[in-house]
Amino acid sequence: MTDRSRTALQEDSNRQKATGPSNKTTFLVAFAASAFVIAGLVSYVASSQPDGLDATTQRGCTVTEVDGAEQLTGECIAQSAKEHHFAGAPLADYTIGGNSTLTGIAGIIGAAAAFAALMVVVRIVLVGRKRTDRTSVSS
Asked: How far is CA 35 from CA 24, 30, 54, in A?
């Protein structure tokens, strides 16, 4: 690489730093904002009807409401289903403490937790890459 091309690359790098956030940062902010809007607003218009898996397991049964709880009558796979371990968790069933009017807030909290987990994974990967780069340069 010539001195002239090295200087040109360095100038381009300096220009990118001076112009502000990178395209990656802009993309991540826009993506996060979209996810929060969808989780917070669109979740209120989501169907309360069973999804494909629930509908399939309930074939052959009739769902009736008894004392505020759903009860299955007939013969279907869903009758042998049990509550999962996290059924009593604060954000179970896309609600907060069982309050279905807080679905949007539960969605936002869930999206924030997913982004936090993503950022932890990205940090771990980046630290691993930096260590690999340092060891390969010093070798």
From this structure: 16, 9, 25
